[in-house]
Amino acid sequence: MLRVAGVPDAWWELLPEQARHLSSELAQVDAFLDDERFIAPWRAVFAERLGRPSIPVETLLRLLFLKHRYQLGYETLCREVADSLSWRRFCRIPLMSPVPHPTTLVKLVRRSGAATVEQLNAALLAKLAEDKLLRCRKLRIDTTVIEADIDYPTDADLLEHGVRRMGRLVERIKASGAAKRTVFRDRKRSAGRRLKQISRTLRRRTGQALGEIDRLTGEVAVIARATLQDVAAVERNARRALRGRPSGRLARLIDELAETVAGTRRLLEQTAQRLAGVRTIPDRLVSLADPDARPIRKGKPQHPTQFGYTALVAEDECGFVVDHQVQRGNPADAPQLVPSVQRVTALVGRVPGTVVADRGFGTAANDRALAELGVQRIGLQRNGTPGQARREHERSRPFRRMRNWRVGIEARISHLKRSFGFRRTRLRRLGGAQTWAGLGIFAYNLHRMTVLSG
What we know:
It is a single chain. This protein is an alpha/beta fold. The chain has helices spanning 17-20, 24-32, 57-70, 74-83, 85-90, 102-130, 155-175, 188-202, 207-242, 249-275, 334-348, 364-373, 388-395, 397-406, 408-419, 429-453; strands at 138-147, 294-296, 306-316, 321-328, 354-357, 377-380. It is globular, with a radius of gyration of 26 Å.
């Protein structure tokens, strides 16, 4: 059930002024979040009259700001809020009331989803524009990678993970009373021994060692195929036991087992292609825990290949992130430019006067499209060898000034990665990555607001 605000606490007035004092940043954020537009997105998440009372939305918003502002885990966040009078007062938690449990916050974030967080960011940017803090006369755009929370993937490791996961799920299904008499052999120890042999073989760093790794990977694939055969019988008999029973925990376990089976079959196909000499596999699966993550190459020497999601970031001249998009895989940069400018235009009500981006966005079609939108100064560098007229244009002083200003987006992305969780998403799948990135942008823009208005 929706709760917008908690019960006022009179105990705060008994404390001395020093104990009730909020820092300048928290005081500004607290006053800024007292707006109905930040409550409206949560009305679709909670029922107005049914269910147990939720955490007050005003408390939840402030807890999420502190979490992403200071990059705290849920348990650490709740512990710090419980120990700090100023943070407890900022989150509007009464002195005699307990701090919400970490698992409650986890469930609420998952329940809200990316759509709610997107509405929160839209409400924040609209209020900033209304208060004349966001003008967006200039816009610089770039893309980066948000890494998934997974280990470096190898074929043998992924298959061994599939074998272990299927074994755990079968054990839980049988413990629930389904498919008890179905024969299943748990082969996780056999797969684990091959992985240990691979780790010992890798230390040799010779051509013969690479051949042995392929042989051991093939053996893990044989173990995975045998496990799939046993799992098929367990899944079939478990679904028979499900007939006539209300869907619940057992149904969720069976669905999770079916998803793991499908992912393991796909991994077997990838492994067969790789052992056959095919090194480039389109849309490659790199994790069973996060099946939406993809390998992404951005040409960085220190990180040739990253695994996760691609994020587009658009920043205005004041440092606000006015548009961001998290997508699966590594889509081309150029087609994303014009839609991003159109979203920013709809937000602030006018076209940015200057738009700059790197070579990935630089095409003649984008130059024409931006000019048709009304952008006056376009700073898009081109790939390849430019003609004489283009060279003269890119050597002009106005273009060089736009190019030099564009470089600042790299520093902004680095700031987001270091201080607001953009380096790695702790939520899985595409929706989780969008939620994680959206909450980080929400906390960053609030922090930026306090810097500019202070």
